[in-house]
Specification:
Elements: H1 2-15, E1 22-31, H2 38-43, E2 48-56, E3 60-68, E4 76-79, E5 83-86, E6 94-99, E7 102-103, E8 106-109, E9 115-117, E10 127-136, E11 139-148, E12 160-167, H3 174-194
Antiparallel strand pairs: 1-2, 2-7, 3-6, 3-12, 4-5, 4-8, 8-9, 10-11, 11-12
Helix pairs in contact: 1-3
Length: about 200
């Protein structure tokens, strides 16, 4: 009986976490063509996504995984302090950072000195599209981000591709503590009756 009660209590504690959500704010659907090169071998063909910004609804850990590039420029992706993915990284390289609730602060940069940050107004020649999440050989991602650098010859969103994921640690709700104390009391009462 004690084990059953303890199992129920532990399930309540660990199941009380809020669901971590990474939302697209100010979204606008777009379509494009020409997505090819190294990303297509990992992420498949892409032809539609969303302009907008990524917003975390709570504190948690944000990760970004390098999935490839197809560009004449040299691009990179940065978030947090000193967390940068470069084209010279191996595919699957991942960086992590704790973030608070709000717009996730990251940016893409090309070798022409042009930077585009999450939350800026998108343009066809400089920006990123938010693609549907997927599972591939480098992990499971909430979304893929496809950067289009400042080269004006195309708008195919494959110049630098990362997969992003957001995870929040379980935090028990106040009523979970009450259930835990009640359960521990029942275990103590049960143990005392047998003694």
């Amino acid at each position: 009986m004690k084990r059953v009660i303890l199992g129920i209590l532990l399930s309540a504690v660990f199941g009380a976490a809020q669901a971590a959500v990474l939302e697209i704010q100010n979204s606008s659907a777009i379509s494009f063509s020409g997505y090819d090169g190294q990303p297509a071998t990992i992420t498949g063909a892409q032809s539609s996504g969303f302009w907008g910004s990524l917003f975390a609804n709570s504190a948690g850990t944000f990760s970004a995984t390098y999935l490839g590039n197809e560009s004449g420029y040299t691009n990179n992706y940065t978030f947090g302090v000193g967390n940068t993915l470069f084209e010279s990284n191996a595919l699957g390289a991942t960086i992590y950072e704790s973030v608070g609730p709000g717009t996730v602060k990251f940016s893409f940069r090309d070798s022409m000195g042009k930077t585009f940050s999450n939350g800026q107004s998108q343009t066809k020649t400089l920006g990123f599209t938010i693609l549907n999440g997927q599972t591939n050989k480098y992990g499971t991602f909430d979304y893929l981000l496809g950067f289009n650098d400042s080269y004006t010859g195309d708008a195919d969103y494959d110049d630098f591709v990362v997969g992003v994921k957001f995870v929040v640690a379980p935090v028990p709700e106040p009523e979970t503590y009450a259930m835990l104390l009640a359960g521990l009391g029942l275990i103590g009462f049960s143990a005392r009756r047998r003694a």
